[in-house]
Structures are given as structure tokens and as C-alpha cells.
Amino acid sequence: MRPSTLAKTAGAAFTAAAAGGLATTPVVESRWYRRLKKPGFQPPRWAFPVAWNILYSDIAVVSASTIDTLDERGDTEQARAYSRALAVNLVLNAGWSWVFFNRRMLGPAAALAGVLTLSSADLARRAGQVNAPAGAALAPYPLWCAFATALSTRIWQLNR
């Protein structure tokens, strides 16, 4: 994996994390968020930054490896397609925080989480087609997004 590719994918993941954090951080302490009814299966607050830091690192490394492998094989169009899918995924990822925390639109946030889950599964599938262990390494991402979809949906249901 080329350091320049890793720098690009890590930069993209960091940008998504930072954008999402801008929407999330001020609201997590807000009266609105504290008053939301939350399901019993919601993890403790500290679990979210831990999980997301691991996942963003995983996304960056697997994506860089996948893009470089495709480029080395001469499959530059597939490398571009993966890069576009990654960009869409990271926009969806950051966008969820803005829809849920900033706009306080719980139903649309639950739907967006579902779309993010599908996008994340697609990234893992694409990476797995290039390198099976890379796809397996990225598998926790759609699993976490599926959990986040269930959590987001339940919060919406409890707070209609």
C-alpha cells in the first residue's frame, strides 16, 4: 500500500469523522438529547468514539489497500469506482450526524442509517472481491452500521 493512497483515504475518513463530530459534540450534552428516550441496548457514551475511531482507521487502511491493489492490476476504472463508493459512504456517514443531532430529524436519520449500512456492506463486498481478507477486515463496519440503524430506528420509535 502506498503512503500517498493511505494519506488520502485517512484524510477522507478523518474529514468525515470531524464533520460528524461538529454536529454531534455540542448536542450530546444538550437538554434535547438527554431527554430522548433511549432503548436499553444503547451502549454507554464512551463506546461510540472508541468504535468509530477503530472503524475509521479500518476504512482508511482497507480502502487504501483495495485502491492500490486495483491500480497495480491495471484496473483503474474499478479503483475509481471504489473511490467514488468510498466518498459517497463517508458523506452518508457524516450526514447521519447532521440529520440526527443537528436537524433532530429522527425518522430520516433512521432511514439514512439504513442507507449507510447498505453502502458500508457494498464497500466491504468491493474490498472482498479484490482481497478476501480485506473484505473480512471491513466487515465490522456494516455490522456496526446495522446496529446503529436498529438503535436509531428504536430511538425514533420511542420519541414520536
UniProtKB/TrEMBL annotation:
Primary location recorded for the protein, binned into one broad class: membrane
Gene3D superfamilies attached to this UniProt entry: TspO/MBR protein
Subcellular location: Membrane
Keyword Transmembrane helix: yes
Biological processes, Gene Ontology terms: tetrapyrrole metabolic process
GO cellular component terms, semicolon-separated: membrane
Key words, A-Z: Membrane, Signal, Transmembrane, Transmembrane helix
Membrane topology: Multi-pass membrane protein
Record's signal peptide: 1-18
Entry similarity comment: Belongs to the TspO/BZRP family.
Protein name: Tryptophan-rich sensory protein
Species this protein is from: Mycolicibacterium poriferae
